[in-house]
Design brief:
With 139 residues, this protein is an alpha+beta fold. It contains four helices and three strands; from the N terminus they run H-E-H-E-E-H-H. It has one domain (7-138): Rossmann fold (3-Layer(aba) Sandwich), CATH 3.40.50. Strand 1 (50-56), helix 2 and strand 2 form a beta-alpha-beta unit. 32% of the residues are buried.
Length: 139
Amino acid sequence: MRPLILASCALLAGLAVLLATSGRTGASPLDQAVSPTPTPLPPQCLSPVDISLVFDHSGSMSQNNKLVNAQAAVNSFVDTIDNNLDSNLSPHQMALTGFANGDAQTDIPLTTAADTIKQAVTGYLPSGFTIIVRGLQLG
Protein backbone atom coordinates (compact mmCIF):
# COMPACT_ATOMS: atom_id res chain seq x y z
CA MET A 1 0.00 0.00 0.00
CA ARG A 2 1.29 3.45 -0.88
CA PRO A 3 1.74 6.01 1.89
CA LEU A 4 -1.31 8.16 2.51
CA ILE A 5 0.70 11.37 2.41
CA LEU A 6 -2.10 13.34 0.79
CA ALA A 7 -5.00 11.46 2.32
CA SER A 8 -6.30 14.84 3.46
CA CYS A 9 -7.26 15.50 -0.17
CA ALA A 10 -9.50 12.43 -0.14
CA LEU A 11 -10.94 13.55 3.18
CA LEU A 12 -11.61 16.99 1.73
CA ALA A 13 -13.39 15.43 -1.23
CA GLY A 14 -15.50 13.33 1.16
CA LEU A 15 -16.28 16.36 3.30
CA ALA A 16 -17.36 18.25 0.19
CA VAL A 17 -19.94 15.52 -0.42
CA LEU A 18 -21.19 15.64 3.17
CA LEU A 19 -21.19 19.43 3.33
CA ALA A 20 -23.28 19.51 0.18
CA THR A 21 -26.00 17.85 2.24
CA SER A 22 -25.62 19.91 5.42
CA GLY A 23 -27.75 22.91 6.12
CA ARG A 24 -30.86 21.11 4.93
CA THR A 25 -33.59 20.00 7.25
CA GLY A 26 -33.24 16.48 8.59
CA ALA A 27 -31.47 14.58 11.30
CA SER A 28 -28.60 13.20 9.25
CA PRO A 29 -26.74 13.96 6.02
CA LEU A 30 -27.71 10.46 4.88
CA ASP A 31 -31.36 11.48 5.15
CA GLN A 32 -30.74 14.06 2.43
CA ALA A 33 -30.21 13.64 -1.30
CA VAL A 34 -26.69 14.27 -2.61
CA SER A 35 -25.92 16.44 -5.59
CA PRO A 36 -24.53 14.29 -8.43
CA THR A 37 -22.07 17.02 -9.45
CA PRO A 38 -18.56 16.15 -8.24
CA THR A 39 -16.24 18.85 -6.95
CA PRO A 40 -12.92 18.89 -8.87
CA LEU A 41 -9.80 18.04 -6.89
CA PRO A 42 -7.22 20.81 -6.60
CA PRO A 43 -3.94 20.10 -8.48
CA GLN A 44 -2.00 19.45 -5.26
CA CYS A 45 -4.30 16.46 -4.62
CA LEU A 46 -3.17 14.55 -7.68
CA SER A 47 -0.40 12.64 -5.88
CA PRO A 48 -1.29 8.92 -5.59
CA VAL A 49 -3.37 7.88 -2.57
CA ASP A 50 -4.97 4.58 -1.55
CA ILE A 51 -8.53 4.94 -0.24
CA SER A 52 -10.58 2.28 1.52
CA LEU A 53 -14.33 2.89 1.65
CA VAL A 54 -16.24 1.13 4.44
CA PHE A 55 -19.94 0.95 3.63
CA ASP A 56 -22.86 0.13 5.95
CA HIS A 57 -25.62 -1.74 4.15
CA SER A 58 -27.25 -3.20 7.25
CA GLY A 59 -31.00 -3.23 7.76
CA SER A 60 -31.10 0.17 9.45
CA MET A 61 -29.96 1.75 6.17
CA SER A 62 -33.40 0.99 4.69
CA GLN A 63 -34.96 3.79 6.75
CA ASN A 64 -35.43 7.34 5.39
CA ASN A 65 -33.61 6.62 2.09
CA LYS A 66 -30.30 6.30 3.94
CA LEU A 67 -28.98 3.53 1.68
CA VAL A 68 -29.91 5.33 -1.55
CA ASN A 69 -28.40 8.58 -0.30
CA ALA A 70 -25.23 6.86 0.95
CA GLN A 71 -24.87 5.15 -2.43
CA ALA A 72 -25.23 8.53 -4.16
CA ALA A 73 -22.64 10.03 -1.80
CA VAL A 74 -20.14 7.26 -2.58
CA ASN A 75 -20.73 7.64 -6.32
CA SER A 76 -20.18 11.39 -6.04
CA PHE A 77 -17.03 10.81 -3.98
CA VAL A 78 -15.68 8.31 -6.54
CA ASP A 79 -16.43 10.78 -9.34
CA THR A 80 -14.54 13.46 -7.40
CA ILE A 81 -11.48 11.24 -7.09
CA ASP A 82 -11.92 10.24 -10.77
CA ASN A 83 -11.00 13.80 -11.62
CA ASN A 84 -11.63 13.54 -15.37
CA LEU A 85 -14.61 11.13 -15.12
CA ASP A 86 -13.05 8.50 -17.40
CA SER A 87 -13.65 5.67 -14.86
CA ASN A 88 -9.90 5.42 -14.23
CA LEU A 89 -8.92 6.48 -10.72
CA SER A 90 -5.22 6.36 -11.58
CA PRO A 91 -2.91 7.44 -10.02
CA HIS A 92 -5.17 6.66 -7.04
CA GLN A 93 -6.55 3.30 -5.91
CA MET A 94 -9.76 2.57 -4.04
CA ALA A 95 -11.07 -0.48 -2.14
CA LEU A 96 -14.58 -1.23 -0.88
CA THR A 97 -15.56 -3.09 2.29
CA GLY A 98 -19.24 -3.63 3.00
CA PHE A 99 -20.77 -4.66 6.29
CA ALA A 100 -24.20 -6.11 7.08
CA ASN A 101 -25.72 -9.33 8.43
CA GLY A 102 -23.29 -9.32 11.34
CA ASP A 103 -20.28 -9.64 9.04
CA ALA A 104 -18.03 -7.61 6.80
CA GLN A 105 -16.04 -8.42 3.71
CA THR A 106 -13.76 -6.66 1.29
CA ASP A 107 -15.92 -6.68 -1.81
CA ILE A 108 -13.46 -4.84 -4.06
CA PRO A 109 -9.71 -4.90 -3.31
CA LEU A 110 -7.61 -1.89 -4.29
CA THR A 111 -8.41 -0.97 -7.89
CA THR A 112 -8.22 1.97 -10.26
CA ALA A 113 -11.59 1.09 -11.85
CA ALA A 114 -14.12 3.68 -10.66
CA ASP A 115 -17.06 1.88 -12.28
CA THR A 116 -16.25 -1.32 -10.39
CA ILE A 117 -16.58 0.51 -7.05
CA LYS A 118 -19.75 2.33 -8.12
CA GLN A 119 -21.43 -0.84 -9.44
CA ALA A 120 -20.66 -2.75 -6.25
CA VAL A 121 -22.07 0.03 -4.04
CA THR A 122 -25.18 0.35 -6.20
CA GLY A 123 -25.77 -3.40 -5.81
CA TYR A 124 -25.88 -3.33 -2.02
CA LEU A 125 -29.23 -4.14 -0.42
CA PRO A 126 -30.02 -3.45 3.25
CA SER A 127 -30.04 -6.55 5.43
CA GLY A 128 -29.26 -7.80 8.91
CA PHE A 129 -27.64 -5.92 11.73
CA THR A 130 -24.73 -3.51 11.92
CA ILE A 131 -21.23 -4.70 12.77
CA ILE A 132 -19.17 -1.60 12.15
CA VAL A 133 -16.16 -2.89 14.12
CA ARG A 134 -15.56 -5.72 11.65
CA GLY A 135 -16.01 -3.34 8.71
CA LEU A 136 -13.41 -0.97 10.12
CA GLN A 137 -11.01 -3.84 10.82
CA LEU A 138 -11.13 -4.96 7.19
CA GLY A 139 -11.30 -1.50 5.65
